[in-house]
Structures are given as structure tokens and as C-alpha cells.
Design brief:
Elements: E1 2-6, H1 12-23, E2 26-29, H2 30-37, H3 40-47, H4 54-68, E3 74-77, H5 83-94, E4 102-107, H6 110-118, H7 127-150, E5 156-159, H8 164-174
Helix pairs in contact: 1-8, 2-4
The protein binds adenosine monophosphate.
The site of adenosine monophosphate (AMP) has 15 residues, from helix 2.
């Protein structure tokens, strides 16, 4: 399993797609999965840039992983994003359901990615929702980086403020395969 973490606009989606095409891996993009599953109030929360409830997310990711797990590598783009999500994931690892081979943290400042986001055409790529996603990332996801390190999961920081090809080459050079 390869985990891709990073602030909104850091290129998780793009890099996940490149890797999955290059190596033939499954690609699970949490944002895309949620756009398929989530409706009503929760959908509005997503569009406003807020993270969804951990238990809901875990239930969904559990089901999705069940449908793809077959000893082939899986790239998870956008999960885990909080400590409770990571706790669940490490429990799964402990129970032998799968193993984490790589965790990449795509590092970029708010300033560096904001223009990128404003240039996309997603409804949650408007100023207010972008700021909310940045805040959620700082409050809930940044602490997770240290938490993973404390739990002996190596997190590899990747400078994401470069061309897509450069970031991809860096990730590929650091990829560990099981
Ligand atoms: P993304 O496409 O990765 O930018 O995700 C879009 C939105 O989906 C986020 O702003 C959150 O509202 C929601 N989301 C995606 N992944 C998660 C997660 N692991 N936990 C909670 N909410 C999530």
C-alpha cells in the first residue's frame, strides 16, 4: 500500500494517477470515492471544504479496500487524513490485512498551491472552501505526520512545488516495493 498525503492542490491526485498508470497499481482517491457515495448534508460539508466524519470515512474505505484487495499494490490518495483514520489503518496492518510500503507527504505551502486550485474547475475550489481545506489540513492532517513517525511509519517528504514530471521522478526513485 502506498499512501499519498498533502495539502489540497499539492498534486496527490495527479501523482497517484501517474504512479498507478506507470506500475499498474489500484488507485483509490478518497475524494472521488466520496463524490460517488456522499449526498445531502455531508456533500455540502465536503463542498465547503470540511472533512467528513471519521467513522463514515472508515466504513467507506473498508468496503472499497475489500473490493480491490488481492495482493496487488494499492495507492490511497487522501486517506488517512486524521489520527483516528490512521489508527484504524495501523490496526488493519497489525492484523495482517495489508502492509504499508510507502508514505509520501507532498509538501507545498498554502501560497504555492492556491493559484493552482483557483485555476481548477471544481466547485470546492473557491476561496472560502480552499481556506477551509487548508485549515483542516493544518489542524488535523499535519499532526498525523508526526503521529505516523512516532508509530514507526516512515513518512517521506517530497517537494511538491516542482513540475509534475520532477515530482513523479522523485517519488519513483524513492518507491519501495514489497
Ligand atoms: P480531495 O479530492 O482529496 O481534495 O477531497 C475532497 C473532499 O473530500 C475533502 O475536502 C473532504 O471534504 C473529503 N475527504 C476526502 N478524503 C477524506 C478523508 N480521508 N477524511 C475526511 N474527509 C475526506
Amino acid at each position: 500500500m502506498i499512501l499519498l498525503m498533502g495539502i489540497a492542490g499539492s498534486g496527490k491526485g495527479t501523482q497517484g494517477k501517474m504512479l498507478s498508470d506507470q506500475f499498474g497499481y489500484h488507485l483509490i482517491s478518497m475524494g472521488d470515492v466520496l463524490r460517488m457515495y456522499v449526498t445531502g448534508e455531508q456533500r455540502q460539508r465536503m463542498l465547503a471544504g470540511g472533512l467528513l466524519d471519521d467513522n463514515e470515512i472508515i466504513k467507506i474505505v473498508d468496503q472499497v479496500l475489500e473490493s480491490v484487495l488481492d495482493n496487488e499494490e494499492v495507492i490511497l490518495d487522501g486517506f488517512p487524513r486524521t489520527v483516528p483514520q490512521a489508527e484504524w489503518l495501523l490496526e488493519q496492518v497489525k492484523s495482517g490485512r495489508f502492509q504499508i510500503n510507502n508514505v509520501f507527504h507532498l509538501v507545498a505551502s498554502r501560497g504555492a498551491v492556491k493559484e493552482r486550485l483557483l485555476g481548477r474547475a471544481r466547485i470546492d475550489d473557491v476561496e472560502e472552501a480552499i481556506e477551509k481545506r487548508f485549515d483542516e489540513y493544518e489542524k488535523l492532517t499535519m499532526p498525523l505526520i508526526d503521529w505516523l513517525t512516532d508509530h514507526n511509519v516512515e513518512v517521506i517528504n517530497i517537494d511538491a512545488v516542482r513540475s509534475q514530471a520532477e515530482v513523479n521522478a522523485d517519488i519513483v526513485s524513492k518507491l519501495k516495493k514489497s
